[in-house]
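Annotated sample (chain length 338).
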Amino acid sequence: MKFCMHLSTRVHDKRNELPLINLMTDLALEADAGGFSAISLTEHHLHENQGYQNSLLFACALAPRLTRATLVLATVNPALHHPLRLVESCNLIDQLNAGRLVVVFGSGFKDTDLVAFGRDLAERNTLFEQGMRTALDIWNYDGTGGPLEFAAGVDRGRLDVPVNPSSFRKPHPILARGTLNPEAIADAAARGWPVFTAIKDPVKLREQMAVYHAALAASGHDPQTIKLARDWSAVGKAVHVAETDEQARSEAEAFFIKNPSGTIARNADDMICGSPETVAREMRAFAEAGMGLMICGFLIDIEDPSRLLRSVRLFKDEVIPAVADTEASFQSAAMSRL
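Output written by the structure step:
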């Protein structure tokens, strides 16, 4: 299982906007330097003053500075974007990061995004499907066979030549689906896409991933496509690490009192929180459930970054190696039984 640092927090004081963006940039560079395989950005326009709002622009700023980490856009709602502009933006990020990009399509969980862009809430699902399908058509268009005319919601367009720049990875970046819907999970498997889920319980997650993996195996895709889909299928959890379980719990509870809107959690019970040993044990449960990627949302507090930086350091130096060592031992034991 690979690990991803999720960059998302709230701005409560406008004076902290640039310091917060700088802090998240520093975290991305530290994640890239070692331990983390990916960095994920989210998209929440006008939702609780999310720190950078525009994940596509922030990804473009980060990509030229990264040397090994994959950027994950989790999630992008195509209902909010003109499909041509979305494809152009994703292609540019993919070029700047040398093909290390995962674009996760998701319909979102807040109405504020759709309202801000003048979308009809009653058409949420239709607009999502139209936008995703049109983006795929644009990615696959090679300029032959006449022009490509498209319509997605209120957006219209016509292409006579392929989009420039093209994506680094052809014909498009790695695409994925963020969903809890069984039909959408089956669709992701049929397409050979990774699936991003929010199931918090490892037992239930194992059941869901077993269904997905079975559908993926039966899809007829080549082994490389299946491996990529399994490797990049993900789940997200808020994470905080301290020297002891008691210290980690106390610090997490203090964070949520100060930041009630949270990050990707709203309370300490809905996160992985504890000593390096405790956090590694809980992470292994998700690895054993069949996840390829764990998205870790650390508790970002611009007014007290010392706890955040210590948590990231403990996770990088002690948790990740412990999980990797356990997985290596398990694989070695499995091979010895063959």
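Annotation: Residues 2-336 form a domain with the TIM Barrel fold (CATH 3.20.20.30).
Annotation: The chain has a mean pLDDT of 92.
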